[in-house]
Amino acid sequence: MSVAARRILVTGAGKGIGRETVVVLHARGAKPVALSRDPHDLESLAAETGCETIAVDLGDASAACAAVERALPLDGLVNCAGIVRLASFLDTSLADFEQTMAVNTRAPMIAAQIVVRDWLARGTGGAIVNVSSVASKLGFARHTAYCASKAALDAMTRVMAVELGGRGIRVNSVNPTVTLTPMGRQAWGDPARAQPMLERLPLGRFAEAREVAAVIAFLLSDEAAMVHGACIDVDGGFQAG
């Protein structure tokens, strides 16, 4: 699954799936560019992999634009940055909803627009992977903003695929189940809450970040040349039953 020498921007690279994606891509010979809000996370990641780093808050649209433009030129893009604000539907605040949509949905659109415009200007193609969630398809209590943001991201993935495929640009999403990242533990760390979810997983466990990163690396590679417009579940069989 060669991605050797390809320059790939990974957002949300400081922790969790994004960080593991940088590690996996580096191990496979790629040249990842790690983007995260926390410079300390980036410093340790750079020490581990030698990757280029960019610190930015993707909730700030103008700063996000500048950061992605700084990363150009690229061969691939992984939109992994995401936040979750837990609250019941009735208690979800406008501020939390807007912030979640800004990071989880608007930022991927901004990044992809900048990257794709550069590809078209240079007459080249590339691959984009949007990191979504099974929450895009199912309702989870206290996840109003998160579920909405990921459903919107899946819809955007499909539109991008329809419009960009003819220009040599592949776009897919990965949709993990609960993944054992800091954010995943925040939402599902309570055993009483986690156990019913685990019982619905035929594999009997939550995902590891490295397992999701491996699927992302595949989708960026030439071996996935005919995989386009897909929202690929990495859910341990959660939706099979």
What do these coordinates show?
With 241 residues, the protein is α/β, with parallel strands linked by helices. It has a single domain (7-231), classed as Rossmann fold. The protein has 8 helices and 7 strands, in the order E-H-E-H-E-H-E-H-E-H-E-H-H-H-E. It has helices spanning 16-27, 39-49, 61-71, 94-122, 144-164, 182-188, 191-199, 209-220; strands spanning 7-11, 31-36, 52-55, 76-79, 126-131, 169-176, 231-234. Strands 3-2-1-4-5-6-7 form a 7-stranded parallel β-sheet, with helices on both faces. Helix 4 packs parallel to helix 5 (144-164). The chain is globular. The two termini are 31 Å apart.
Keywords:
seven-stranded parallel β-sheet, single chain, alpha/beta, Rossmann fold, 241 residues
Compact summary:
The chain is of the alpha/beta class and 241 residues long.
Beta strands, count: 7
The neighbouring-strand order within the major sheet is 3-2-1-4-5-6-7
Main beta sheet: 7 strands, parallel
Name the assembly state.
single chain
For the termini, the CA-CA separation is 31 Å
Estimated share of beta-strand residues: 15-25%
Sequence of secondary-structure elements:
EHEHEHEHEHEHHHE
Question: Which regions have little confidence, pLDDT < 50, spanning 5+ residues?
Answer: none
Rg (CA only) = 17 Å
**Overall pLDDT metric:** 96
CATH architecture descriptor text: 3-Layer(aba) Sandwich
The assigned structural class equals alpha/beta
How much helix is in the residues?
40-55%
CATH homologous superfamily grouping: NAD(P)-binding Rossmann-like Domain
Give the CATH level 1 class.
Answer: Alpha Beta
CATH topology: Rossmann fold
Tally of helical segments: 8
Domain count: 1
Shape, per Cα inertia axes: globular
